[in-house]
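Project standup — Tuesday

K.O.: blocked on the structure for the chain from last sprint. Re-posting the sequence here as requested.
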Amino acid sequence: MAAPNRGRRPAGAQGRPGRALALILIAMVALTGGMFWAGQLTPRLGIDLAGGTTITLKAKSQPGQEDAVNETNMNTAVGIIERRVNGLGVSEAEVQTQGKDNIIVNIPRGTNSQQAREQVGTTAQLYFRPVLTVAAGTPTAPQPKPSASPSGKAKDGKAKETGKPTAGAPSGTPTATPTTQGRAVTDALKAPKPTPTPSGSAKTSEKPKPTPSGDTAGADKLQKQFLALDCTNEKARAAAGDNVKPSDTTVACGKNSDGQWEKYVLGPAEVDGKDVDDAKGVLDQRRGQWIVTMDFTDKGSKKFQKITSRLSQQQPPMNQFAIVLDGEVVSAPSVRQTLSANAEISGSFTQQSAQDLGNILSYGALPLSFEEQSVQTVSAALGGEQLRAGLIAGAIGLALVIIYLVAYYRGLAMIAILSLMVSAILTYVIMALLGPGIGFALNLPAVCGAIVAIGITADSFIVYFERIRDEIREGRTLRPAVERAWPRARRTILVSDFVSFLAAAVLFIVTVGKVQGFAFTLGLTTVLDVVVVFLFTKPVMTLLARKKFFADGHPWSGLDPKRLGAKPPLRRSRRASAPTDPKEA
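H.V.: unblocked you, prediction finished:
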């Protein structure tokens, strides 16, 4: 009766552990190769470890505007704050929303923290300024030759905007065509007719319109600044609008519909962003195109009517008004007719570009302000000390776990230590890859999460080892004990890790700030624990069960039947019951 069962593996047996080991080895090699290929050999450090400033802002709505704190407005605020921080010349700064009403700004070391706080904590500055001159965004020679182009044609050969209302536009609905979004590239800086010099030689002047005060020296300075301005340079763009009052004539940069930088000379601001009552990108069903609509307050309507009445009588580009946000031109529509309480900007908008511009215009009047919840500034030296302290704490915790495993499990501790090493390698490599991949930064709470994960990972090994030892106590030999113990240990490990992962996920979702780093690391290491136990610990245990040192229960193997109090009769009963006479089989 024993013959039919001969050769069968117990339930849960793994016939080819080499496949699992090969799979995890390939994964480790691939991830390590990706790390070297990306050139990111160390995890990216957070502000608290590398040094820098972390600013937490909480959005507040004004009375009667409780719905202003919403996802759209928060994302708009993030974009504006990010542009401000980048304007400081900061690299690798992070601006992101956390929760429904918080914005976290991480600025690395080397930045003036006070200046950064002033930039991110104030309301966006939105102005409508008349355009005096526009040119390509690269530096212009002091005396360039006037560009000759056919009448009514742009440089690309396409017809220019005529300034006439769009055919079929609804009566009484003001329409404007954007110049930086949804229009052809403007001609290079237009020069007036040559003016004879005293010596009789002709000299071309490309001087922009003088300032309203008639200050010739100021106009000359503005002209030089305009000609030298390089809008393709980020620092030059940020410096162009520094310390400019609304009443000043200034230079600014902006992108056209082709994504090319252009530079402007802009007159004094005549409409403030607070004069905008509402703006949004909408789909014009009749014309089948996306437009941006603007509604002004009563005070803003009078201002806007005044400026559009004057601009509608001008020739391009002086019939344009620039929408300037924090010193940068986000759009420069040309005026076709006198506008007052409402207006629309039409052109080659996509849904995204129309909605983005609408959000920017709305933010100037958005009943939304921010208050600082916390500001943490960490020096590079302090960050280094914190990192060393965290690594020392992790090393001490790992050493204590190893000492316990060696003292209690002896030879089995070797499997646990190897498994911990594999888990550590995978964690390190993945963290290094997540830096450039998703912007993950290893902060101090994340280091704490990795330390806690040592205990969670060790707990999985202990559960499996104890199941094996329980089987040996029942009188079974090692190989069947390894396979019979696995199904029960597997269920316990999965349930335990699921609870840990669920806690980490909930903590990541509901928390704000650096606590998310702890939750993310805890969740990552919990997932890797399952991978290591299934693809490394179990297969290695299966292979070592075939070795004499473990199979015979050596006193230092950690599986000595005598030390475990095994039941010898059950262990020997299978051997004793084996038939000695072939006829008995």
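K.O.: great, moving the ticket to review. The chain has three domains: 13-46+380-576, 52-116, 125-350. Confidence is low (pLDDT under 50) at residues 1-13, 145-214, 569-578.
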